[in-house]
Amino acid sequence: MLRLDLSNLDPRRVGAQGLDFAEALREEKERLEAARDALWGRRGDAAEFLGWIDVPEDTEAVRNVLRYRQANAWVEDFVVLGIGGSALGAQAVSAALGKGPVRLHFVDNVEPEPILELLRALDPRKTLVNVISKSGSTAETMAAFLAFRRWLEDALGAGWKEHVAVTTDPARGILRPYAQAEGLAAFEVPPAVGGRFSVTCPVGTLPLAFVGVDLEAFLAGCRKANETAQAGAEANLPAQTALVHDRLSRKGLNVNVFMPYSTRLRYLPDWFVQLHDESLGKAVNRAGEEVRTGTTAVRAIGTTDQHAQVQLFREGPHDKLITLVRLEEATEDLEIPAVAGLEALDYLFGRSFFELLSAEAKATAHALAKAQQPNFAFVLERLDAYTLGWLMQHLMWQTAFLGELWGIDAFNQPGVELGKEYTYALMGRKGYEPLAEELKAEGVE
Ligand SMILES: O=P(O)(O)OC[C@H]1O[C@](O)(CO)[C@@H](O)[C@@H]1O
Q: Is 369 in contact with 375 (CB distance < 8 Å)?
């Protein structure tokens, strides 16, 4: 179960920075429902990249992943080679719900020392390497693949092939034909699913299967979010949180803090940052006019960052909307013991850690509101696969709704291409010689 607590948006609590939500919903009902209809209406068109809506319905893809997991019971270490959307979803969910005993590792950078450290620590005989790249052309991921493939072949000879699984587009890019030629296990990123929307396809489900995440429940939660995204505005939770973002960004609240009160959810903000920023930071709208949309998502974890960022959130510029994620129940709790001689701490004696966590979440939300800092919360009944699936698919919907409200394409990322081209030029890739010359003339070599 997931619900919204919007009480700290109320202008009676947070003043002019806030939002009379009921009134806004009445005013924007038509616009929100038009956005909903447009999104659902376009979902059959692969060019629209709305395939993530239907992926949670694809139970055959999950069965395929689970069969592969069962057939590879020898795996003790599972290495994901992927970056951005090809890593962040599995990283967020595995940190929250992974049970082991398989250890999951993520190589999402090209700094040599951590890669060497991992290679030295792993036993190739017990390691499965999953190279994940929709395009098959991402330099970081492909460099890592070249290194891990060589490492496996050096140790295992022709047996390296049993230790590699490829997750990529069914037709495009170089990885698919390579996997076919070498006879490697291969999984699909559906063409109509972009990286940051791919956690429900094998990009996410394959690593998650190896750490025992209940995939059926996770996808059932995603389907629940789909159900809410079909409702009229009064019950359409993603349209509602998109409305909050839309309205408050128009008041100049252009920083979106995403702050779960949970260490288990520590990577969820990283996943959200990519989803939100890469989708919504756009120079032009669908009509090609310059619009420069976007709000800046910022990571924070409660309670940890109460002691790092909350000072700024309360007393810094009034440019923020804060999204909290609160849990209603602990999965397991721990009592805080009484200790003689430390009676100054007796308010803690006999209380539980979860009680303290909950009190801190509510106290901080209220203290923020007292400083006229609008905030709202996703309240999760508990942290389980169903509820996390619901929340993540909700956030994908929220992003899609915002793209629609702002008239932009939330599913492309033209702004990251130029940096990639420059990298190719600096690395001496064939065909990039003129660009390398241009860079040299500009003082970059
Ligand atoms: O799966 P790929 O094609 O390697 O892409 C990885 C990431 O790179 C980007 O294309 C751009 O940074 C992201 O959108 C994507 O998630």
A: yes
